[in-house]
TrEMBL record:
InterPro entries named among the record's database cross-references: ClpP/crotonase-like_dom_sf, Enoyl-CoA_hyd/isom_CS, Enoyl-CoA_hydra/iso, Enoyl-CoA_hydra_C
EC number(s) per entry: 4.2.1.17
Biological role stated in the UniProt entry: Could possibly oxidize fatty acids using specific components.
A molecular function (GO) term: 3-hydroxyacyl-CoA dehydratase activity
PANTHER family reported in the protein's UniProt record: ENOYL-COA HYDRATASE, MITOCHONDRIAL, ENOYL-COA HYDRATASE-RELATED
Catalytic reactions of this protein: a 4-saturated-(3S)-3-hydroxyacyl-CoA = a (3E)-enoyl-CoA + H2O; a (3S)-3-hydroxyacyl-CoA = a (2E)-enoyl-CoA + H2O
Keywords attached to this entry: Fatty acid metabolism, Lipid metabolism, Lyase
Protein name: enoyl-CoA hydratase
The UniProt record lists the keyword Acyltransferase: no
BP GO annotations: fatty acid beta-oxidation
């Protein structure tokens, strides 16, 4: 299957998606988000895939939603068509998704990275939500996700001024998991994705659900949910294999 806006590969148990609109610094248009959802649907169904990695180019992960596509839009058209509504499906995926970011991750590009489970950044990465400079506001979850990550003061300052931050600042305030030299970004991110894909599928997906509960509800509800998931994991063969392998001093072999 070929796509107009994406390059898609499988490396072992990792599904690799490269955003590919170099002429527009990977600006995300409707076609790109539809193709991305199609690819992610396939990966969700594919038992051979344990982790997904989304990346862009050395210059840009993605420089935003496509301004040229958005410029003529009007309300109520945006409302009736639920413009950007389909983007959030990326965040609803059950398998883990890593964003490997080099260069610009701005506006919708940053929002896409924030929908992933974590970001590994090249030292060239820049993150920002500059929508205010275009007379609009972010609409794909960036305000909610950034504010939860960095707190009200920094989120307000960035959002109201449109200022972007470099990779060092992004790591310091918890936006990215790790910063690596640009030349090593893909290798490091693939390494991380392969390690995740090699774990127990059940445990990984349960962990993702548990971490997502942190944002969704109260601490009490999160603790109860985590404990239930922990109890449920004892119904899986992976628990027997993982603990058995530890006791027998060998590497575990997990099923799906
Ligand atoms: N949409 C459409 N096209 C874009 C784009 C975008 N978000 N970002 C860059 N491009 C295009 C440029 O128009 C240019 O195309 P042409 O050669 O046809 O003119 C090409 O990509 C290269 O860009 P530049 O010449 O501007 O490259 P640069 O290196 O000088 O600057 C940049 C890079 C600072 C990232 C600059 O391109 C820029 O500011 N881009 C827009 C960033 C932005 O405002 N993003 C937020 C968009 S709104 C949004 O995302 C809403 C939402 O919440 C979902």
């Amino acid at each position: 299957m070929t796509y107009q806006t994406l390059l898609v590969e499988q490396a072992g148990a990792v599904g690799l998606v490269t955003l590919n609109r170099p002429e527009a610094l990977n600006a995300i248009n409707t076609q790109l988000i539809d193709e991305l959802n199609q690819v992610l649907d396939g990966f969700e169904r594919d038992a051979a895939i344990g982790c997904v990695l989304i990346t862009g180019s050395a210059k840009a992960f993605a420089a935003g939603a496509d301004v040229k596509e958005m410029a003529p839009l009007c309300f109520p058209g945006t409302y009736l068509d639920d413009f950007l509504g389909r983007w959030d499906r990326v965040a609803q995926r059950r398998k883990p998704i890593i964003a490997a970011v080099a260069g610009h991750a701005l506006g919708g590009g940053f929002e896409l990275a924030l929908m992933c489970d974590f970001i590994i950044a090249a030292d060239t990465a820049r993150f920002g939500l500059p929508e205010v400079k275009l007379g609009v506001i972010p609409g794909a979850g960036g305000v909610q996700r950034l504010t939860r990550l960095v707190g009200r003061a920094k989120a307000m300052e960035m959002l109201l001024s449109g200022r972007s931050m470099d990779a060092t600042e992004a790591e310091r305030c918890g936006v990215v998991a790790r910063v690596v030299p640009a030349a090593e970004l893909l290798e490091e991110a693939m390494d991380s994705a392969s390690r995740i894909a090699g774990q127990s599928r059940t445990a990984v997906m349960m962990l993702k659900e548990c971490v997502n509960r942190v944002d969704d509800g109260s601490l009490g509800e999160g603790l109860r949910f985590e404990r239930r998931m922990f109890q449920a994991v004892f119904a899986t063969p992976d628990q027997k294999e993982g603990m058995g392998a530890f006791i027998e001093k060998r590497k575990p072999v997990f099923g799906r």
